[in-house]
């Protein structure tokens, strides 16, 4: 059950409320909205809604197939609903962490970090591709949760994450900041500051980051965007530019090890490997000349 589609009117309303709030309560430290950036985010969101129909069908088929591999089949109760919600949030933490640490997965997720602004419309920059994330939901199927329960938990998780994409909320009550993912925690995640890279992967519960050593509090002004920003507002380029970069990088390297690095190791290691290969090729060409 994908609840995010039904939430679209609420998304639009809350974005308008936040937009108007900048008119009446401006803050020079906050980025606010621009027409081009917001239009790109909205376009990315619409693309996600359409393309997600196909991806959801693939996920459903895989989940249904996995139900035949397990003897466990849990009924939908309040207890199982809570369990699948928490269970998916843990799975999401590892999915999200992999999205940042495996380059071919980063190619899908990078569009969510492409905006240099941080507002509610940024939450709509969702991936247009995503088959690589399929394995992260399968453990829940094998534990006996039905595909419908998992899809509902995934939708609720995504709904929660919408409101934390804002600069309008500073810090929240300390116990909430301790346990839950909040705007402050998620601003860190969207930062390109060196100390903020690959931190705070949580969906709903920040406790996962605290447990697995990836938590960083917000201590300095966040610089939003990528370490190497793309100069485009074209939704197609935003969605697929990293795949194109991977294709170029695969042509630049020549060993199986380097090609593996380009595809499956972290973006930083991939970029370093490609830079080294291109430097070596340039040196060889210069010597030959």
From TrEMBL:
Membrane topology: Multi-pass membrane protein
TM helices/strands, residue ranges: 6-25, 46-66, 72-94
Organism this protein belongs to: Actinospica durhamensis
Keyword Transmembrane (UniProt): yes
Domain Fatty acid hydroxylase: 82-214
GO-annotated cellular components: endomembrane system; membrane
Alphabetically ordered keywords of this record: Lipid metabolism, Membrane, Oxidoreductase, Transmembrane, Transmembrane helix
Lineage summary: Bacteria, Bacillati, Actinomycetota, Actinomycetes, Catenulisporales
Example of a GO MF term: glyceryl-ether monooxygenase activity
Protein name, entry field: Sterol desaturase family protein
Main localization of the protein described in the UniProt heading: membrane
Locations listed in the record: Endomembrane system
GO BP field: lipid biosynthetic process; membrane lipid metabolic process
